[in-house]
Amino acid sequence: MLRLGEVPTLVVSSRDAAREVMRAHDAAFASRPLSATVRVLTSGGRGIIFAPYGGSWRQLRKIAVTELLTARRVASFRAIREEEVGAMLRAVAAAAAAGRAVELRAALSALVADTTVRAVMGDRCKDRDVFLHKLQRTIELSAGFNPADLWPSSRLAGRLGGAVREAEECHDTVFGILDGIIQEHMERTTSSSCGAGAGDGDGEDLLDVLLRIQKEGRLEFPLDMLAIKQVIFDIFGAGSETSATTLEWVMAELIRNPKAMHKATAEVRRAFAADGVVSESALGKLHYLHLVIRETFRLHTPLPLLLPRECREPCRVLGYDVPRGTQVLVNVWAIGRDERYWPGGSPEEFRPERFDDGEAAAAVDFRGADFELLPFGAGRRMCPGLAFGLANVELALASLLFHFDWEAPDVADPAEFDMTEGFGITARRKANLLLRPTLRVPVLAQGYVDYRNKEKVMEPSCACIPLGSSQLKWYRRLANVSSTLARPNAMPGHILRPAPNGGKLQVAFPLDPQEHVEQVVVVVVAGG
Ligand code: HEM
Q: How far is it, in rounded angstroms, from Cα 417 to Cα 406?
């Protein structure tokens, strides 16, 4: 038990205590404390992540689990993930061709942010960089070590450091961006509602789902626009940072451990040699890569203290009384490095083989049942985005290893590679991740998967052309009457998708993979 400023805080640092808190007394510890900065950042505890335990949180959590983050929904975003990973690979290939190192942290953050934003809103966000910057500050501010959070009863502390003021500024900027995006999204939906695809429940992005649920009503707690914005912000906050942090640490550990890098790379290249590209549907055949991810979660759990819980009723944990209102931090970072649970060599050592068949930890998994490995937490407040997060991590990692060899410039001894952690509610690497890629397997100009026909069509290249609302309206009418627009074996210049996804039309055109294309002009002629 610690007292952080005025805040009584129980730190849970063993597997048994974690099991008590998140299984035996899960209901008692299912709330979250609302510090002064978090209160501002979450519009007073709205949304899911920091909402106090109660009916409103239960309702939003149910929507998340049964509608937004289901396995089926995650699978429906596969094309987005493959397109975004493809775009990142092409940028890395360009750097490799120029002999340049890549700032991989920035590339991975942008990848996960773009993938998430498209899953949420169907389109990229033009203010992505401002958004990411504010998100990063939000994460630092919500760590809870500001005077205003440590001395909640002190007015002076509230003014010191300016954290609350900065939280207000972050909140206003982010919600301003969200307002614009939602407005655009609603205009797009209205203008396309006369044609095919609209309102049929197919290809919904997460904002569509939330707006549909809002419209349907029948909710105990009305889903107002503020709640919708907060949920969207939650998904960005919880989804982007954690997945990008995991990817960053996996790559850093593989650089530090050349043998593991070699083994993981060889496995991925063997598995996808015939296809020339990593596809999500076949990731299940990778064994070692999954051990590498599990080992990274053990040593570099993105949320080292999970997210804070709060004790709702007086409770006894391992014989100790825990008063109501106590903040609880589960030190997953320490549990993941405790030699009592990780025998067989130093627990600090990165050794994915510890999870291999026949090893002591082989059966230990991270899905909330084994309390020595809890990157996603456990119990009622466990992460509902596990499948979403893993999908982002696995495809990107396998693709980076499949196409490129990696080295750290100016680091003579890989064991010396800097692994210092930064400060915040997430534990990122402190330093940038500057790595030099060497192209080993060519990167396709662009891949395209035809899901209607359940077959894979690799075109020389495709362009995604954003359509204005009047073009989109005409296009939808056209698509309704002319099924010839949908061509599974499209020739260059042909329209690939019968119903534009998120106001975009996909068009195939010939492209030399080495060629750099500045602009593609597509003329959509209404009426055929
Ligand atoms: C590698 C990726 C991820 C990791 C390691 C991770 C980890 C976590 C952890 C540790 C918690 C707190 C659990 C607890 O208190 O016991 C959490 C909560 C949460 N995560 Fe994730 N997460 C990841 C990805 C995602 C994604 C992609 C989404 C959504 C798209 C998401 C949505 C959430 C939400 C909404 C909560 C709050 C749950 C609640 O309080 O009821 N997470 N996550």
A: 13
Rounded distance, CA 396 to CA 85, Å?
6
How buried is residue 387: exposed, middle or buried, by Cβ count under 10 Å (0-12/13-18/19+)? middle
383 is in an annotated binding site: yes
Q: Does the Cβ of 383 fall within 6 Å of ligand 1?
A: yes
Residue 425, ligand 1, Cβ within 6 A: no
Q: Are 342 and 298 in contact (CB under 8 A)?
A: yes
In the reported structure, the alpha carbon of residue 302 is separated from the centroid of ligand 1 by a whole-number distance in angstroms of 10
Per-10-residue mean pLDDT for the chain, 528 residues long? 93 97 97 91 91 94 94 90 91 91 94 90 77 82 82 81 87 90 79 41 78 88 90 88 95 97 97 88 94 98 95 95 96 96 91 91 94 97 96 97 94 89 85 94 60 36 56 52 38 47 54 49 48
Can you give the pTM of this predicted structure?
0.83
**47 within ligand 1 shell (Cβ under 6 A):** no
- Where does residue 414 rank: exposed (0-12), middle (13-18), buried (19+ CB within 10 A)? middle
pLDDT recorded at residue 237? 84
Ligand 1 center to residue 385 CA distance, Å?
Answer: 6
CA angle 445, 451, 453 (to 5 degrees): 110
| Integer Cα distance of 470 and 354 in angstroms | 58
Q: How far is the CA of 237 from the centre of ligand 1 (A)?
A: 9
Classify burial at 514, counting beta carbons within 10 Å of its beta carbon; exposed 0-12, middle 13-18, buried 19 or more: exposed
Residue nearest to atom 18 of ligand 1 (CA): 383
Going from the Cα of 239 to the center of ligand 1, the distance in angstroms, rounded, reads 7
Task: Give the pLDDT of residue 192.
Answer: 58
Residue 132: name the closest of 109, 148, 163 by CA.
Answer: 109
Tokens, residue 16: 């048994």
265 within ligand 1 shell (Cβ under 6 A): no
In the chain, the domains with their CATH numbers are 2-439 (1.10.630.10), 448-525 (no CATH)
Grouping H, G, I as helix, E, B as strand and the rest as coil, residue 321 is: strand
Q: What is the 3-state secondary structure (H, E, C) of 150-177?
A: HCCCCHHHHHHHHHHHHHHHHHHHHHHH
End-to-end CA distance of the chain: 72
**497, 486 Cβ separation under 8 angstroms:** yes
CA 355, 359, 363, 368 torsion: positive or negative? Answer: negative
The half-sphere exposure of 313 on its side-chain side, counting CA atoms within 13 A, is: 6
The Cα–Cα gap between 369 and 377 comes to: 9
Distance of CA 247 to the CA centre of its chain: 10
Question: Are 490 and 450 in contact, with CB atoms under 8 Å apart?
Answer: no
Q: Does the beta carbon of 33 lie inside 6 Å of ligand 1?
A: no
